[in-house]
Amino acid sequence: MSKENTRSGSDTIKDYGKGAAYMTGKVIDAVAPYIPLFDVATKLIKEIIDLHDAAQYNKNTCARLMERVIDAQGAIEKLKRTKKINEERFRDQNFYNTFQRFTNILTKIKVFEEELSKMGNFRKTVEASMIKEKFINLTTEFDSTMRDLNFSMMVDNEAQRKRDFESLEEDHDEIKKLILYARDSVIDKVEKVVQEVQVMKSQLESKVDNHDQSADKPVFKPPKIDTSQLQFCRSSLAPHNKGRIKKMYKGVVEVECKSINLSEKAKVQTYLAMIGKLGICPYILKFLGLAKIEGKDVQVSEWTELGSLKDFYDRRDIGWETKVVIARDICRGIAFLNSVDVFHHDIRCENIMLTGRYEPKIANFDLAREFNEFSKEIPDMKVLRWMAPEKMEGKRYDTKCEIFSFGMTLWELAFEKYPYDKKFDKQHLEDLKRYVTNGCREKIGFGKAKDQNESAIQHKLKEIIESTWHQDPDQRPNLGELLIKIEELSEKHVEPDALPKIYPDKQLDLDGSRYCADFEEDFENFTLNDNPDIKTIMPFEDGLKIHQQIRKNESSEIINEKRKKAWECFSDNADMGNSQAKYWKGYYLWEGYHVEKNREEAVRLFKEAADDGVSGAQLRYAFSIISKKEKVTPAEIKEFTTYLTMAADKGNHVALYNLGDLYLNGKFHVEKNRELGIDKLKLAAAYGNDAAKKLLVQLDVQ
Question: Which positions fall inside the Protein kinase domain (predicted)?
């Protein structure tokens, strides 16, 4: 640019300032032209970061873009704080033009991230060369503009390029897998309805924003079904179908008719029209339309012969291979909903319907909400059992909450029972909230697998469930990763077109609770060693099972033999650093089982295991500090309380009872705190501690 043009450009900005001074009667502010640009850039950067946080696909590529805009965010804040020093730059037309281009690049990055992170755009993103080319063009332009603005970047160019390439390759491999697994059943369906659903959602949001919930002229309407097309159909006499209204639609399609309240007519009809569109996905219950039966409004949906998944597992046991297929299809349905920007909000087995062919259908969208909307508080204990800890604390519901609920549903399907059913009843809602928000979860322990394939399924399901349960939402897998894991599990361990494996109720030992003393196993051959050069050790879990099989009415010879095997297992595994084994080795030393008592060594092992987070060890170490001592020092009391609290925080009911007693009565000179003491006693009682229940009755506490 020539000096003349530069001068002219500078005069332009000065003229802007003079006009502002004339209007406001204040001194020219060189920053004034940039204020709208700062606002635009800040808003775009926040939107790009939010897109990254919500992204379920191409997460790594989105992360590389986010890293750059975070650098820009810091540079802009620094520029705003040092405006006096940078006054000359603010008056430079070239700098102004470059900043304007910078906001345009941010807009392009935002649009690109939106395309990358949506399943509906997979056909566009499957061409790796196209994505790579667009990414390189955008980042090159961004990096160049950052340099022109003299904005510093935290990562050097060579390291950044390497990370960029690795992220592009990793994401492309993930998308190829997703297209391989879910193209026909999910991706193609998303492409067909995503725009219609988006328009319907915007219509719903508009009605809420304008408080127009009672208008009777909906833009979108669900299909109307003439009553004459719904013919009598004999329902199954099975108990689970009692109360359900079954009809034959057009003489060929079995349907269910459920009553519905249409008081908010426009909103409900638009909502139902949207639900009708979702039925294009084979894993969502198909809503066919509205009808009137005996003067009452009903919604007509496809018939599901087996009822809800919850009803079904209450009547039958589901084989592990069949559980995997059901879990896979539910996950596909959730991925579809996510890709059209719809949350279910209440994923659990009771809201999954099963067809006569054992196909799961996500249903009961009564609590479903539009994307990015605050969901209403749901105080119902049944719903709370599946709820993410951050949602319990009142935070916005998002995909990470849905993934947590899916993980709880996987646990429910695996063990065929409600989560926390024996720990908390409906009277202990707040206790359950505290339990989950403190990071505690249900136990995952399987019964004996019938073969290697079943064992591999159990191991992988445990891994998947635990990943979805992470206390930190950002550490949970995204939907793309989750779907691939379950698809690969199904592909590897379930035969294509295999018949469902269904058994009589309570036949399978799902959680090991039926594993008892009459288990026929030759303990002499518990560990096999075909390699004389390698000394193998019995797995810790097998040693623990041997210990748990010991019965008081057995002969002393049998008891001693079992304790010998358990001791050897605990000792070997403890020497290898297994924390649980350290605790059990310490327990055997404390009690003198198979070996001479050595309580000093036992205490040392208890402390090591306690510091590794083993709750039983934390409790035993705590009491070892104060046992058989006439006088306990303040330091010992502090250590005792610390370890007792650690055990209580992990849900140990004995620790909770003793901690409650400690605070309630001010024992060991601990300051009395009746409220805290009663809270701990309530938790202990909820876990089934009889002493806590008795004490609460004496205190007349509900």
Answer: 231-489
